[in-house]
Write a structure and sequence with these properties.
The chain is α/β, with parallel strands linked by helices. The protein is built from 14 helices and 20 strands. It folds into two domains: 323 residues, Adenylosuccinate Synthetase, Chain A, domain 1, CATH 3.40.440.10; 96 residues, Adenylosuccinate Synthetase, subunit A, domain 2 (Orthogonal Bundle). The strands form five sheets. A ten-stranded mixed β-sheet has the order 9-7-5-2-10-1-11-15-19-20, with helices on both faces. The structure holds inosinic acid.
């Protein structure tokens, strides 16, 4: 102990990378537990931008254990590409470990993802086309290839053969099946296995060891609560559980190993891909926020949909995750807007009013945000380093969020730089706040 989970509370892209990066300075290990390279973190360090999709944010600190847990789906070519790039920039990657039990995103998963979206046509989910859904589907069907299989030619060949048969059939109508050659794929993945060998480990045991030794371990969630396959806006979700509870299964620990759960929440809302979005601002104001906040996907470059902060969804995410603290990001993007509002309930058909996030898909699809206007502020807040320095209207905005959701705020981000961060007294007194910057620095 202590274990701290960091999760997204919206539809992903909340700025978890920066928060994890800051907390990682005081941690000994950072663990990814779900998702894959559908996620994308941009970390700015000394003016240099690092875009990571699979490798945990802590890699930029020497001596950190950076773990890709069993719950992650791994595209080996992407992982090797990131390792290569980090090394080229003289970042030490020796602390990186990938679970032998993590599942592999195979070439046919990428084809199946694209074919699946084509088949859905207008109903498509808007996936990142990284093969995430098909890889998790194979895992559940017991047709998956695991990282450890890349080290054993006989097993690998057998497993690819078994998986290829149904997938070839599925891809035939799209004439994509000729791309699947058993021999080429096996050889390619054995090469990946050899290149990854030094990183492959029993990561559940490594995490346990760190916790046993009393080190701070961060569990870094990808995506966000509203994209959760069980509790999100299904079917417009990802294929894993981006909730704090999934940290246990996806890293191989127990619930009692978790001491704090931090929910990262952008000061407004964004979503990429299709699906319900009750607070969407499909207008000039939305466009203005998109431009100011540079709201374009790290992974796909797609423009993100923009909306006011949805407190109904945030309170739901707080409950699903039992959040102990909130980290509010991109507050600076809201500076200088003529109007400001938050969504406090939804309205639906026949004048229905919803205070809670609707569980029924038809209700949710017709839900529209009902807003409470709040006072805006015009000051640039990028230089504020304490809550006191923030304009009164910005402080009121934050207080309204914390009050409504019933979760205190530990951290406020007022710009992309590491120093553009405010630790509240709660954050400073938290387990990570009190932990000294960790070994190796
Ligand atoms: P998939 O995870 O690629 O299958 O995509 C499923 C849905 O989740 C799509 O709407 C994606 O846009 C969304 N999604 C997946 N990963 C992220 C992310 O890291 N940020 C935001 N949206 C994501």
């Amino acid at each position: 102990m202590p274990g701290i989970v960091i999760v997204g509370t919206q539809w992903g892209d909340e700025g978890k990378g920066k928060i994890t990066d800051l907390l990682a300075e005081r941690a000994d290990a950072v663990v990814r537990f779900q998702g894959g390279n559908n996620a994308g973190h941009t970390i700015v360090r000394d003016g240099v931008e690092f875009k990571l999709h699979l490798v945990p944010s802590g890699i930029l600190y020497p001596g950190r254990r950076c773990i890709i847990g069993n719950g992650v789906v791994v595209d080996p070519s992407v992982l090797l590409g990131e390792i290569h790039e980090l090394r080229a920039r003289r970042i030490d990657t020796s602390g990186l470990k990938v679970s032998a039990n993590a599942h592999v995103i195979m070439p046919y998963h990428l084809l199946l993802d694209t074919a699946g979206e084509a088949r859905l046509g207008k109903l498509q989910i808007g996936t990142t086309k990284r093969g995430i859904g098909p890889a998790y589907a194979d895992k559940a069907s017991r047709l998956g290839i695991r990282i450890q299989d890349l080290l054993d030619e006989r097993i690998l060949k057998k497993k690819i053969t078994a998986a290829l048969e149904p997938h070839r059939l599925a891809l035939r109508p799209y004439e994509l099946d000729p791309e699947l050659d058993l021999h080429t794929m096996t050889e390619q993945h054995l090469t990946y296995g050899r290149q990854l060998q030094e990183y492959i480990a029993d990561t559940s045991r490594l995490v346990w060891e760190s916790l046993e030794q009393g080190h701070v371990v961060l569990f870094e969630g990808a995506q966000g609560a509203m994209l959760d396959i069980d509790h999100g806006t299904y079917p417009f979700v990802t294929s894993s559980n981006p909730l704090a509870g999934a940290a246990c299964v996806g890293a191989g620990i127990g619930p009692r190993d978790i001491d704090e759960v931090w929910g990262v929440c952008k000061a407004y809302t964004t979503r990429v891909g299709s699906g319900p979005f009750p607070t969407e601002l499909d207008d000039e104001l939305g466009e203005r926020i998109r431009t100011r906040g540079a709201e374009y996907g790290t992974t796909t470059g797609r423009p993100r949909r923009i909306g006011w902060l949805d407190l109904v969804a945030l309170r739901y995410a707080a409950r699903l995750n039992t959040l102990s603290a909130l980290a509010i990001t991109k507050l600076d993007v809201l500076s200088g807007l003529d109007e400001l509002a938050v969504c406090t309930h939804y309205s639906g058909e026949e004048d229905a009013i919803f205070d809670e996030f609707p569980y029924h898909q038809s209700v949710l699809h017709h839900a529209r945000g009902e807003f409470t206007p709040l006072e805006s502020w015009s000051e640039d807040i990028g230089e504020c380093r304490s809550e006191d320095e923030l304009p009164a209207a910005a402080r009121d905005y934050l207080a309204f969020i914390a009050d409504f959701v019933g979760v205190p705020i530990a951290m406020i981000s007022v710009g992309a730089g590491r120093d553009q961060t405010i630790w509240t007294s709660l954050g400073a007194e938290s387990l990570v706040g009190t932990a000294a910057p960790s070994r190796g620095d």
